[in-house]
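Q: My labmate handed me this sequence with no annotations at all. I'd like to see what the chain might look like in three dimensions before we decide whether it's worth expressing. Could you predict it?
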Amino acid sequence: MRCCLSVAVVMMLLLTAAEAQVESGPPVDQTITALKVQPVTNGQAGEAVDIATQRTDSPTVYLFIPAAKFDRPAGRFVKSLDTAIQKRQMLHPLLQVVIVWMVDDAAAGATRVSQIQGSLQLAASQWTVCKVDTAGPEGWAVNDRASVTAVVVGKKVVTAKFGFDSINDTVVPMVDAAVAKIAP
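A: Here is what I predict for the chain of 184 residues:
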């Protein structure tokens, strides 16, 4: 009886996670386009760089987060994903999460990102800011309904994508399973 109940609970969680998804991110098997962002260091937004070109051959999880939609559950997701990626970095040191904080004011966004980093203490993630509207950077097909869009990329090709209209740390295993395919 307990086994059946446990299976039912797991199935409900998976269905809930699946229902919370929206179509967001570039198509799987597509080569990624340029991604101009400003890396954040010590609360300051640096000069704009094309992070996608910098990470050409490195396995990467790009997280697109509209600043206005970030909340505690999203923070738990980011922290849990960072922890999962840290474990994978032991075998794949170039694997990294790039967080694209989508804002309308890069300076204010960099300040906010520093506060969040101070709280979350991420080790496998690089914070960046990107001054864009809610649709996200050009060529990345970020859905404005998504509170977080995760795009898993290996050798500049999208291998998986996830768009969540609501999110928490229970969906990390789904994203981590996609990462395992490019960084086992």
